[in-house]
Amino acid sequence: MFVKAKGSLIYGESGKEYIDFFAGAGALNYGHNPEFIKDRLIEHIQRDGVSHGLDMYTDVKRRFIDYFVEHILEPRGLDYKLQFCGATGTNAVEAALKLARKVKKRTNVFSFMGAFHGMSLGSLAATSNRDSREGAGTPLNNVTFMPHPSGPLLYLDTIEYMERVLSDDHSGIDKPAAIIFETVQAEGGINPVSEQWLRALADLCVKHDILLICDDIQVGCGRTGTFFSFERAGIVPDMVTLSKSISGYGLPMSLLLLKPELDQWKPGEHNGTFRGNQMAFVTAMAALELREMMNLDLLVKQHEHFIRKFLETNIKTVSDKIEIRGTGMIWGIDLSNVEDSGIPKQIVKECFANGLILETAGREDQVIKILPPLTIEQSQLERGFKILNEAVHSIIAGSSLLTTH
Q1: CATH 3.90.1150.10 spans which residues of the chain?
Q2: What's the pLDDT score for residue 384?
Q3: pTM value?
Q4: What is each CA distance from 298 to 222, 263, 304, 381, in whole angstroms?
Q5: Which numeric CATH code is attached to 2-33+295-396?
Q6: Which residues are the signal sequence here (predicted)?
Q7: Which of 284, 272, 271, 326 is nearest to 27 (CA)?
Q8: Of 12, 263, 271, 324, whose CB has the highest number of CB atoms within 10 Å?
């Protein structure tokens, strides 16, 4: 029973301290209750600032939009309109898919095996996880899943496969309105794609008049070392979905970025009661200021260097059956080649008992997912990895998996 949280730490009712390597599934990039952001929120409440504004213009909404355009979009040469979609990430995905189909007048969408895009019906249709899909209780249609370059069909050139599907008048697959993708499949098991693959995907969409939608909900807002995870490839998606850490404080906020020519909504055609969380505007504005004050991208790169080196030196060397994947501050320890499928859960349980919070992801939950707050102190980062390292060695030591390097 958790009762308090600060920075990268969560405290239980007993007073026990836990290091958070989960970070609200990516919603807490700035950690728990960061002072700079908290003070702005308290000030807004104390002055009786607008708490709920529907789609009306407010001072905090204007300040956020102006700052986001000036400090995030313009320096990157990006020209996007902003649409506030509602409380959570799936709302932004729903808006993107709905708009893509409206603009292109096609019903099909391409998604990828291993993808996670949300739990409402439209975005769930683009989510590949069987357990999640079974919860729908109704057919999930109008999405075709393409092989992902990290998936079980590793021998396949996935871009070439899509090219042939789109060019073959006997493929039996309808041309999509859009292709939705993640630069790093997070829930899918920490599967980053290469810059070359991203550029090829963007070129494919241009060639076939297909909209490209980047789902940056979990790996955006600085998680990979740049504000948008697609920046490293130099591409410009037609639409980008943001949520989770865009508010900077764990408050509900969902944002769709779209190229101006795609704004073909009729007035009120896609609305919602909470598509303008005033408190989130306040904290989101403060978060953007804080990331600049901290030089957060540089900090993430420094943390990434430590994480990569630690995992390769201390974890990967435990067994040649262990695979390490990741970028920035999202990493996975893949144990899918280990004979005992229960080992990942055992390691996570052992870590929790020793004061470290982690989760599993990927096929059959065989990947241990590492997702600390971007602002974590180096000492806490090192302490968390010490706990993880001890758990991995404790669970695996003595088994047939242990190898000497």
Answers
A1: 2-33+295-396
A2: 98
A3: 0.96
A4: 10, 35, 10, 16
A5: 3.90.1150.10
A6: none
A7: 284
A8: 324
First-to-last C-alpha distance (Å) of the chain: 41
CATH 3.40.640.10 range(s) for the chain read: 38-294
- Which CATH number does 38-294 carry? 3.40.640.10
Query: Which two tokens mark 292?
Result: 């600049």
DSSP-based three-state secondary structure for 67? helix
Closest CA to 32 of 41, 42, 20: 20
SS3 letters across 79-132: CCEEEEEECCHHHHHHHHHHHHHHHHCCCCEEEECCCCCCCCHHHHHCCCCHHH
Q: How far apart are CA 244 and CA 24, in angstroms?
A: 8
Report the alpha-carbon distance of residue 157 to residue 385 in Å, rounded.
36
Sequential DSSP letters for 244-301: GGGSSSS---EEEEE-GGG--PPTTSS--TTSS-HHHHHHHHHHHHHHHHHTHHHHHH
